[in-house]
Design a protein that fits this description.
The protein has a domain of 51 residues. It has three helices and no strands. The chain is 49% helix and 0% strand.
């Protein structure tokens, strides 16, 4: 059976709640294949599934992920703090980085 047919048939057979996890597992397999091809790193199936499950959980509950509860780096926040914009105005937050003209080699 061609891969696309198998994926479609599998998605039609599994419960709605598990479809996202299935997609994350497929993505994990694709990433693993690329790691093997381009970095000669062979990941264990358990590692691939664990990473897929972790990524899926972080997508569902981003506030519970370790990366979302880290303290911001020192100096990364404005000394004045964030203020809500006046009524009828919108605030767009942006982020930027600079290497001060230093070329990376």
């Amino acid at each position: 059976m061609p891969l696309l047919e198998w994926v479609s048939a599998t998605l039609n057979q599994i419960e709605k709640e598990r479809k996202g996890l299935f997609i994350y597992c497929l993505h994990g397999l694709w990433l693993s294949k690329n790691k093997f091809l381009f970095e000669n790193e062979n990941l264990a199936p358990e590692t691939i599934l664990e990473r897929a499950a972790t990524s899926f959980a972080e997508a569902l509950f981003p506030m519970n992920s370790p990366s979302s509860i880290q303290e911001p780096p020192i100096g990364s926040q404005s000394p004045n703090g964030w203020r809500i914009p006046p009524p009828g105005r919108y605030k767009i937050n942006v982020d930027a980085a600079s290497n001060n003209g230093v070329k990376e080699e």
